[in-house]
Amino acid sequence: MKSFKRAGAKPEPKGDPIPLLDADGNPVTELKRDKKGRLVLDKEGMPIKVPAVKRDFYGNPLYENVPYTDPEEARKTALRSGDFAEFDDETEAAYEQVLRERAAEEDSSLAPDPDALLEVRHLKMYFPLKKTISGKVTLWLRAVDDVSFKLHAGETLGIVGESGCGKTTMGRSILKLYQPTGGQIFFDQTDIAGYNSKQMRPLRTKMQIIFQDPYSSLPPRSTVGGILSEPVLVHKIASKQDVRSYVLKIMEQCGLRDYYYERYPHEFSGGQRQRICIARALSVNPKLVICDEPVSALDVSIQAQIINLLKHLQEQLGLTYVFISHDLSVVKHISDKIGVMYLGSMVEFGSKKDIFSHPMHPYTQALFSAVPNPNPDVKMERIVLSGDIPSPANPPKGCKFHTRCPKCMEVCKHIAPQYREYEKGHFVACHCYPQED
Ligand code: SF4
């Protein structure tokens, strides 16, 4: 009997779609697509490049068999030959992501360093920029991307970098003012990265922050005594009877006179306000203080007073500081260790002596070349970086600094350099130095 097709009915598919096979000829069954549907990861987590989906006459997907290319092998071949013409940057970017996630997973099982007060491993803080109507995030701003370091009790870590490089976000993520997207934060050998606000509450006395702007960080309707007493009472550091004498002692330590107790913040200058902020941070006996550009809003003469006060308090109370600043002279004066950040990543980390005596990363070299030298006999060679800092929402492929680097090579445009330890405690991420063992 003759059959008739109903108008508009979907035609029956003819033949099976050709399966996607891996290098060994086995069908690839578990795939993850990227946002554009071009890159997929197989079940091993390795990226595979798939050509645009072709469809047969009936609209059925028709994949072509694509040979599985080992991204590690492709990278080695390109590095050996120096020819990146056929090199696939997107596959490489996906592969680097896989490697980073693997490293974070491997490191997550390691015990924290017993000597470190603060140990940060593979810290990530991403903010969603674009979402689909169903709420799926399609674009992230990677403010902090895979940052790791250790800090011992009583030390000061200076964090430097241009505005927008993620210094402040990193400091706030350590304090859990933001919930980190990934990574571990060991404070006193306890991983607090996954803690909620209730779990963080007892730790708030141990970790404090001094904000950049002393004008907006003090409540205008409270007296100095009220501002400093509140955290002491909330965290039960002193009883109601003793709180006044306790606060007066802290004020004296911070160079504030006792009759300031009844005064309001608007009656003080910027330097005195910052002393009140420091006293507020110290009133709960913290171990770690994040100083977020604490002197950048002050005059140079006042800056020196505040820096000296912070140093004096550190010696007296054994405090540990993370000192965020874009002023290299200030960082040099106060720090024991220095971390240099660029576009959300740590590009160089080491002791103050190592970083200042021989900076290895071209970005650090450029930053330090801008520090004025008071000795007229020393010839300054200024390295001027051209161009603006790229957007962390769309960072350049390969080395994030390659668009501005005066030493940029072809490899830098395609492959991100490894963050490696070249001298004891001196870490750098740059292709100018050996990448393989
Ligand atoms: S990896 Fe290349 S582009 Fe990046 S800092 Fe080093 S030399 Fe410059």
Descriptive overview:
- With 437 residues, the chain is an alpha+beta fold.
- Helix content is 27%, strand content 21%.
- The protein is built from eleven helices and 17 strands.
- The chain has helices at residues 71-81, 89-108, 167-174, 197-200, 224-234, 243-253, 270-282, 300-317, 328-334, 352-357, 362-369, and strands spanning 32-33, 39-41, 47-49, 54-55, 61-62, 116-131, 137-152, 156-160, 182-187, 190-191, 207-210, 288-292, 320-324, 337-342, 345-351, 419-423, 426-429.
- The strands form four sheets. An eight-stranded mixed sheet has the order 11-12-13-8-14-15-17-16, sandwiched between helices. Strands 7-6-9-10 form a four-stranded antiparallel sheet.
- Helix 5 (224-234) crosses helix 6 (243-253).
- The longest helix has 20 residues, at 89-108.
- The protein is globular.
- The termini are far apart.
- The protein binds iron/sulfur cluster (SF4).
- Iron/sulfur cluster is lined by residues 361-362, 399, 401-402, 405, 407-409, 412, 417, 430-432.
